[in-house]
Amino acid sequence: MTAETQIVADYAQRHDEPHDEHEHGADSPVVLDIKKLDKSFSGVHAVNNTSFTIHQGEVVSIIGPNGSGKSTTINMISGLFNPDSGEIVFEGKHLERMKQREISDAGVARTFQNGRVFGTMSVNDNLEMGLHKKMESGRPFKQLQDYPFAKWPSLVGELGLNLMPGPKTRKEMNAVTRQVSNQVQSFGDHLVDMVDHLTYSLSYANKRRTEIGRSMIASPHLLCLDEPTAGMNQNETEEVMQLLLKLKSEGNTMLLVEHKMDFVMALSDWIIVMDNGAIISEGVPSKVRNDPKVINAYLGGDKRGQPQTDEGIAAVNEADAEPIPHRMPISADAPYILDMQHTDVYYGPVQALYDVSLNVREGQIVSLLGGNAVGKSTTMRTILGLLSPKDGKVIYEGKDLRGVSTENRVRSGIASVPEARRIFPEMTVTENLLSGAYIRKRGKDIVSDVDDVFVRFPRLKERRNQMAGTLSGGEQQMLAFGRALMSKPKLICMDEPTMGLSPKLVDEVLAAVKSLRDELGISILLIEQQADLALSIADYGFVLLNGKIVLEGSARHLAADSGVQEAYLGKAQ
């Protein structure tokens, strides 16, 4: 039993789950009423005739495979997109045509799927931004900022008040300081020593904590959480779960999108299941997790095996799935395409990698495993030339890459699929693919290669003229793969390619990674937190802990090694 599953059991003992779907918020007022919501992108129906309600104090979760319309629904509620038709009624106010700022001022807060913080601002400053809309004495002219001619004079007036504050403004600023301190304390010790650090320098998990804290600090009437634990390991996920359970016990109303089913089952009063833009099921967790339509949509039928009826979808994270078959092992005599030798890397005075040595043979998938902030992404950035080692070497195809620019490393055959995909959201799918071929001369070969990507990823062909920012997370991941292929790589470095994806789509991504090796002969360095997933397709693996390689071996050997789990828990010697 995982830590998350134990929390589910403990929570179920403390709170009797309702068994009648008609009990859905029956005694509480409606906070959010969604009526026949519709949204299309370039002819693709992302959300189709969707209706649901959220009552005060409820936690309602939207689940479903990637591309089902979950994030699009949250984006419309928060004002990022306007619906094509339908109504969004929040506490009696229609939000359909409101600006994002107006929706935020009305009491709706949100987090984003890939995490968004102000990287060049400190943790404290990021949290204070969450209270900006609540300020009165320091922002007496804020209502004028919707009018172009009054906007700048009002901002100059606010600047003057904050540079030379009067008694009321000082009192308000002191209150903000206390609230920020309390919010920092709510995350235990994780942010206490980081309050003055610029958030770009934080670990991924601490960036997510900062974003969640910024959303929560103003006590919103509705908190929308779009995959709040994406990219977090088991311990970090458990900490966020405990935080949200506390918020729930205090009567907060939340709308949650999340793929971790233990997490969803522990938090939710009501679950809505979407597929292909439409709601296919809804109800209390006990009903939804055993619905055959949900199991088929979310897990892909028998692809991972049918969950037991008494466990249902809650068993996704522990399903006894058959591993993806390995191909024949790479010959021990195959030459190294990549060989990092005794590498030390620093961020200013702070050392991030200590004597790191790892290698990838031609035609191999090698997994680099470890928890958050242990040095995995730093390793990838060093290979790509974005960081320079103080000591040690990066050897590619027998050549030392010291002094070789990132552009020339790409020209030599090294490509990347970065964390959170990093596609160009305001460019079409086709334009994103063409950007991956910028190092090549334009011609028929490039057109042919775009067609080959569309054959490999048919969903991208369907959306070739659609803006990439409107794709689902899974579709964006496929686009990132395709863009990398357009540079004709020999080695691809992939950073967390399964992050934030549904179980069914995780299988598709892993199959796609495996096919790049088996069908195209591309070598792959796969950076991943989920060790079982990465090792299911890898030939070899390395485990990082606190900037040092603590374990290495064949994928099969590491999959059976208890030391891998200990490394994730910080206990490996």
From TrEMBL:
GO terms for molecular function: ATP binding; ATP hydrolysis activity; branched-chain amino acid transmembrane transporter activity. Residues 32-301, 338-571 form the ABC transporter domain. Residues 12-26 have a biased composition (Basic and acidic residues). Coiled coil: none annotated. GO terms for biological process: L-amino acid transport. Gene3D superfamilies: P-loop containing nucleotide triphosphate hydrolases. Pfam families: ABC_tran (PF00005), BCA_ABC_TP_C (PF12399). Keywords: Amino-acid transport, ATP-binding, Nucleotide-binding, Transport. Residues 1-26 are annotated as: Disordered. Belongs to the ABC transporter superfamily. This is ATP-binding cassette domain-containing protein.
